[in-house]
Amino acid sequence: MMGEMSEKKSVAVIFGGRSPEHEISCISAGFIAKGLREIFGRVVNIYIDKSGNWHRVDDGIIDFTKLDVKNEAESCTIEQCLTDVDIVWSVLHGPYGEDGKIQGLFEMYDVPYVGCNVTASAIAMDKVIAKNVFEHAGLKTVKYELLLEKEYRDDEERELERIEKLGFPMFVKPANMGSSVGISKATDEKKLKKAIEDAFQYDYRLIIEENIIGKEVEVAVFGNGPYEASVAGEIRPRAEFYDVDAKYHSGGDTAIIIPADISEEQMKMLQEEAKIAARAIDCKGICRVDSFIKADSNEIFINEVNTMPGFTEISMYPKLWEVSGISNKELLERIINYGYETYKGKSSRDAALRGTRKV
């Protein structure tokens, strides 16, 4: 498999986007593009601005967080941007990037791409639907309540009474958002109300989760099935929780322990459950599985699957594989190859479908 990309290919990295995670995408894309450039020589940098306009960025630009669009990029149509591109790596985080929308576009244009397909991306992005799928696969999830904005506006007192049965503290999250955007920890009703209003800025559906006292752990996964899982790493945030700032800007505020300080049995169980979760939603190529180990019972609760995990110098995904014996170069090559593998399988099935379709 490693020889599949031995010849130089044109790899495009797409970043930015209309999501609130626009800046995070630019950080991840810079790190990925640098590594791909060292492997393949040339990378096609495609920037989507906050209005949804597409641009091709000069190949020499390495810091996408300081991009001068007027002088360092050329506006283009989607077709123009994807011209002469062999495979695309979308580093768009959050809505429009990890929720199946951009993946659907690649499918329509018949462009090979890295990562999960439309279905897996959409399921993983929706925290409520994902929990239902994980539970069906036999995995434990944290207790939660779904809150819809219209129902909350119609009868706030009723909805608060229902939610508060989870017990304080609790976490309030937009159902469809990543990178901890819009997430708050509520320790009383006043803070709960504020957290709800803050989260409604990002989604009309919220998920309210009970607080788990224990270890927060993450496992990196790659492959198209069967999957490979890295060692687990532990997150010890010094803030209230592992928020967006700690993930992408001030890693020094959070202690990262790799491998996690857990038993060998727990390590094997986390790795196995990570692969079960990936299989349950049909992950392709790359994902990270986040879980909790409850302190008083050692039970493992799956939190979420991230189908396009952060990929910066301080991000968990590349760090977990590095400790597991996979260099960044090999990691990038394998992820690209998984994208090709998925596309080839899809192409052969599409050809068979066209051959049997009655006109």
Describe the structure.
The structure is a single chain. The protein is α+β, with helices and mostly antiparallel strands and 359 residues long. It folds into three domains: 11-113, Rossmann fold (3-Layer(aba) Sandwich), CATH 3.40.50.20; 132-139 and 213-338, D-amino Acid Aminotransferase, Chain A, domain 1, CATH 3.30.470.20; 145-210, 2-Layer Sandwich (Dna Ligase, domain 1). The chain is 39% helix and 23% strand. The chain is built from 13 helices and 14 strands. The protein has helices at residues 22-40, 69-72, 78-81, 101-109, 118-125, 127-136, 149-154, 156-163, 189-199, 244-248, 264-281, 316-323, 328-356; strands at 11-16, 43-48, 54-57, 73-75, 87-90, 144-148, 170-174, 184-186, 205-210, 214-223, 228-237, 254-257, 285-294, 300-306. The strands form three sheets. A five-stranded mixed β-sheet has the order 4-3-2-1-5. A five-stranded antiparallel β-sheet has the order 12-11-10-13-14. It has a four-stranded antiparallel β-sheet with strand order 6-9-7-8. Strand 13 and strand 14 form a beta hairpin. Helix 1 (22-40) packs across helix 13. The protein is globular and about 55 Å long. It starts with 10 loop residues before the first strand and ends with a helix.
Key features?
359 residues; alpha+beta; Rossmann fold; D-amino Acid Aminotransferase, Chain A, domain 1; five-stranded mixed β-sheet; 13 helices; globular
Q: Which CATH architecture of the largest domain would you pick?
A: 2-Layer Sandwich
The major sheet is characterized as: 5 strands, mixed
Assigned CATH superfamily of the largest domain: ATP-grasp fold, B domain
In the sheet with the most strands, the strands line up as 4-3-2-1-5
**What is the first-to-last residue Cα distance?**
38 Å
Low-confidence stretches: 1-6
Give the overall pLDDT as a whole number.
91
Coarse morphology:
globular
Classify the secondary structure makeup into a structural class.
alpha+beta
Give me the count of strands.
14
**Helix-strand topology string:** EHEEHEHEHHHEHHEEHEEEHEHEEHH
Portion of residues within helices: 25-40%
Looking at CATH, which topology of the largest domain would you report? D-amino Acid Aminotransferase, Chain A, domain 1
Rounded radius of gyration (Å):
21 Å
Broad CATH class of the largest domain: Alpha Beta
Supply the number of helical segments: 13
- What is the count of structural domains? 3
What fraction strand? 15-25%
